[in-house]
Amino acid sequence: MAAAATFAAILFLKLAAGMLADRVLGDPRRFHPLAGFGCFASAIENLLRREESTARMQQMRGLLAWTLAVLPWVALALWLHGLHPGAHWIVDIALLWFALGGRSLAEHGEAVAAPLAAGDLAAARARVGWIVSRETAALDAEGVARAGTESVLENGNDAVFGALFWFILLGGPGALLFRLANTLDAMWGYRTPRYLHFGRAAARLDDALNWLPARLTALTYALLGDTRNALACWRTQAAQWDSPNAGPVMAAGAGALAVQLGGNAIYHGRAEARPVLGCGAPPDARSLRGAIRLVRRGMLGWLALVGGIALLLALAAALAGGTPHA
After folding, report:
1. Where are the chain's structural domains?
2. Per the UniProt record, which residue ranges are transmembrane (predicted)?
3. Which of 44, 101, 116, 230 has the fewest CB atoms within 10 Å around its CB?
C-alpha cells in the first residue's frame, strides 16, 4: 500500500509539473521538436514509399516507415528513463511538456474566437484555416465557429487527454509514443491516392492508441457540461461519424455545449456530407470559448483525480501502518 501511495504521489507531482510547464512555456516558438520529427518522418517516407508498389506492399512499407519513425525515439526515452535513479523525473516531465498541447490549443482557439466575436470574419476565416484541413475561404460566421469548435473538441483528445492517459499508464515514453503516433496519423492517415495504403498502418495504430482515451475524453466533456444531453448525443450520434474515436469525442462535446456541429464541409476541393452532431443552437464565438473551457477544466479535473487517489492511498497506507498486529 505504501509503495502504491508513493507511486501515485510521484505521478501527481509529475503531472502537475508537466501541466505547469505547458501552461507557462507553451510550445517552443522556434525549433519545435515535432517539426523536426515531421522532417525525419518525411525523409523516411521518401525513402520507403513507392507509387508502383502493390497495395499490400505499400501497406507493409507504411508499417515499416511507422516503426522506424516512432520506436527508436521511444526506445531512447526508455533508455534515458533508466539512465540514473533520478532521471525519470526530468525525462517524464520534459516529455509530458513536449506531448501536451493545452496552451497552444487554447491560443489557437482564442485567435479564432476573438475576431469572430468582434465581427471580423476575414480574420476569423484566416485563423481557423491554421487549425483545420477543410477549406475556409467561403465560410460564414457560423461555419467558422463550427470548424473552430470541432477542432478544439477533437484536439482536446489528440493534444491533451490522450497524452495524459498514456503518461499516466506508461510515463513519459508512453506520452511520447502517443504524440508521435498521432503526428504520423496527421501526416499519413488520409484516404488519398498518395496515402490510402501507405498510411493505413499510421491510421490504424493511432485509432488503437486513441480508442480508450477518446472515450475518457468524451466522458470528461459530458461530466463538465450538459451531462444528460452529452451522453444522449454520444449514444445516438457517435457511430454515424466516420472516425471511431472522433465521433464520441465531438458528439459528447457538442452535447455538453448544447450546440449543433457537423454538417457539410469541403476537404481538398471536394464537398463531404457529414452527420450532424449535438443538438441545440448553432455555434458561435461563445461555443468556441466554451470548448476551450471544457479542455482546460478537464485537465484540472484529471489532475485532481490523480491527486485524490494519491491522497486516499496515502491515508490508507498510514492507517495500515498504524494498525497493531496480533
Report:
1. 2-321
2. 31-48, 60-80, 159-181, 299-320
3. 44
